[in-house]
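Look over this record before class:
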Amino acid sequence: MPKFSATKITKPKPWLIKAAASVGLDYSALTHEETNYFRNHVRKRHGTGAMAITEADYGLIPAIVETPDMAIVGTVREGVNVNVYTKRYGGWTYLYFDEVLNSTHNRALRSRTFYKIVKPLDMGNLERIVAMNGTSDLSGAKRVIAAGGHPGGEA
């Protein structure tokens, strides 16, 4: 197994820091990052077939987390705080998930999974995807809908 490595993507934008604060989370000192384990996971689980994530798709991640069309901030999945971001590009809806690491050793919004689907989503459909299999608790999460790439706007 290759040695673990992490690459910084970007700092959280003010809209995300504010949304997290509204549900009692502090993201101000965190950084979005992706890891080689994340890339291996995506390659194995979402890297084949008609909707495969390609190398070019990874380049969309900064825009997805900076100006998502929708986001759910502070979902609890298997005891871990997770954020979900969606963005529509070129006929695809991209879904990117990161987990919140906020300890003395790890302080990051670390990539968890990334895939794409064909259909556009509204918040209800996104909530259904996130809550699938009953492993996520959205009760304390903040929903953010963006208008024109500016989170916090109205759809």
Remarks:
- The beta strands are 6-10, 32-35, 70-77, 80-89, 92-102, 107-117, 136-137, 142-147, 150-151.
